[in-house]
Amino acid sequence: MPVLQKLTHLACIAGILLLPLISLAEDREQQVPRVQKGVIDLRSVDFENQLIELTGEWALYPYELLTPGANFDTYYRTWHHLPALWKGISSPKGILNAHGYATYRLKVLLPANVPYDKLAIDIPDAYTSLKVFVDDELIAEFGKPDTSAATTQPGYRTQARRLLLTADTIWLTLQVANFHHRRGGPYKPLVIGYNDVIKIKKEHKRALDLFLTGCLIMGGLFFLGLYFWSRKDKVILYFSMICIIYSYRIIGTVDYTILYIFPKLDWFIALHIEYLTLFLIVYFITLFSRALYPQEYSRKVAHFFMGFSLSCAIGTLLTPTTIFTHLVNPFLVAMLFNIVYTIYIYYLGYRHKRPGALLSLISTGVLGLIFLAIILAYFAIAHLSPFLLSIGYIIFFFMQSLVLSYRFAYQLKAARTEALRSSQAKSDFLNTMSHEIRTPLNSVIGISSLMQQQEPDADSKELLDTLQISARNLLFVINDILDFSKIESGKASIQLQPALLQQIADNILKSVFVLVKEKSLELNWRIDERLNAQYVMIDPERTTQVLLNLMQNAVKFTHAGYVRLKMEVVDESSSKLKVRFSVADTGIGIPEEKKKIIFDHFTQVDSSINRGYGGTGLGLAICKQILAQQGVKLYLHSVMNEGSLFWFEQSFTKASKPVEEVHSSRHTQAAIRAKLGTYRILLADDNPINIKITEKLLLNAIPGLRIYHAAHGKAAVEMVEAHAPDLVLMDVNMPVMNGLDASRAIRQLKDRKLAGTPIIALTAGNIREEKETCIAAGMNGIVAKPFTIDEILESIITVVYNKV
Ligand code: ADP
Q1: Atom 14, ligand 1: which residue's CA is nearest?
Q2: Run of H or E residues at 384
Q3: Rounded to the nearest 5°, which phi and psi values hold at 737?
Q4: Which of 70, 316, 331, 702 has the fewest CB atoms nearer than 10 Å to its CB?
Q5: Which pTM value belongs to this model?
Q6: Ligand 1 centroid to residue 553 C-alpha, Å
Q7: What pLDDT, in 10s, does the model give residues 439-484?
């Protein structure tokens, strides 16, 4: 059975790793002086190199609390191994079993040459109160040992006390009493040695404890912070709880380093926390492991371990110390099972290739070994090596942190993919919506402009004008939303080409001229002369979009005075040109507190006031993003009721003049009419209303045209073969065969003349995006729906003249 085999291997490796963590109790007892019949002979000990544990047969006086001056010979005495718990020690006054009191006594023979002030005794805590006398002097008192539960006070402490020797023999007397704990008696050895050596050893241990605690608290808080940022992955929360809870166990158990920080910590409180943390740590480790491997970790087993740990924790809070301290034995047995089961689960996680599972397995294995070593030490089967224990902890928490960081990064990646996916869905939705809205809008604009051409009366003309303006405004809003979503999802690319900034400025000024005139404002401009002839690499469409938006806002929010467009060259080298663009107005201004937020999408200074001005609150967000895409920042200076100034600086690479295209603007309407007079045009569109409107618009402009219809791409190809039209106006989105495929099919026709028929794409989508695909499919131009007759004629004439 391969699984069993692998588990056996794991167990062997665990055993080998466990060995350094512990050393078996017996090994430690060789060649060291031991207490025999109440005496320890240390006369030949070299204290420079050795610390001596005072273990062995101490004189024990059960149920007596004797002070050094007492006549010890008159009391019942037995020999008892120390350190050890009281378990059934019989005496005339009764059996000493956990609860009770007793005196221990030991004679220590010291070397004659020991300096009188160099020795010290390291006194550990005992269950649960202790007094230590050296000869007649009381040198330590932890709690208050006495003869009844009411008068005894339990207390924790470990302390090194210096000995001032007056002779080379000393007597140690220990009074121990316990009425508050499941265990009673001195369970740790006293140690004698040079004060310096004891001190250094204790300080090392304390430093290690504090270091580990610091690491765990920091790690815990870090992961807690991480959880609260993302609030998603409970695993991270559980791990942070494990770190924080465990940090207490490092300083609040074994050597009680916590007493170094809080010397007055009450015994009862400390004991409660010690037990609570033990139970809670297992509770959280179970939660953690189950959350990490939900498919591997059985729900029932998890509930059992969690229920058991939680019951123990509640028991700790609700019952007296004499009762809840009894919970530990059954709990440790359950914990052993928990360790084995958890390691098995992590092994399964590894086998099932869960993210970070190998590191998890190793680190949990190490933690399992640590717990095992602690349990063995608790039952006095083995001693722990504090240094290796610390390394074990560090390995566990470091590896586990790595696993969690990996997990966090993994989830971030997944969240990013998800975000991209939903942003894609959003952009697809907007694309479809805009297509669906633009198509009927095309009809509205087309029909109203057809009606305008039929010489309507004054009233109807006004209504038709309003209809036109409203439809065009709606179109701007749709375009804005679409643009914003494109830019936001990073899909709008910047397409550089040689262009003249002067030309861009001219177009913008022309566009706002009518608006400015309508409001009786002044239109000012200053364009640096160097921009008249110097071509630069620029995305003319995007720059126009930004400046036009700023200019339109300037006009919109100004009631008197002027609006001004400036383009100044602020720096020039042989290859580069840095231009400062600014748009100024003498309008209503923008309040200080709104200056930052108006660049956010859908934000307006005051939406109620703004209703009067119209707009979506997208314009500036689009400007800011278009510029940011090119590494340019948009600045604003504004004073309320005085005006606003928007400006930015952008560097351009100089370019040479591009090869000129023949442009329709060179041709007069009459020339166009003459050229296209008897043209035969194939109109391919699946929407009959669109066909009707386009046909009417074309015929109104050039009555001699002959127009054919096709309802889809396939029909269009057949019509080209059948009628050999001079030009095809091809909708991109059509059923049966779309415009792109139809164009490809036409380009493949055997007849070379037919295959070369000029094709202009009509699209309700985004021209910038579709242009390349249309050109790649063999089309010669593209026009966005809804279009005006001028736009379509200009496109036709450009294609026709370029073909010539
Ligand atoms: P909108 O479509 O609402 O104009 P914009 O993003 O272009 O959206 O502008 C956001 C808001 O910033 C405007 O609604 C207006 O409150 C304020 N704003 C922009 N330009 C100016 C300006 N030149 N003068 C005063 N307020 C302005």
Answers
A1: 604
A2: strand 382-384
A3: -140, 130
A4: 70
A5: 0.56
A6: 6
A7: 788 788 888 877 877 777 877 888 887 787 778 778 777 777 777 7
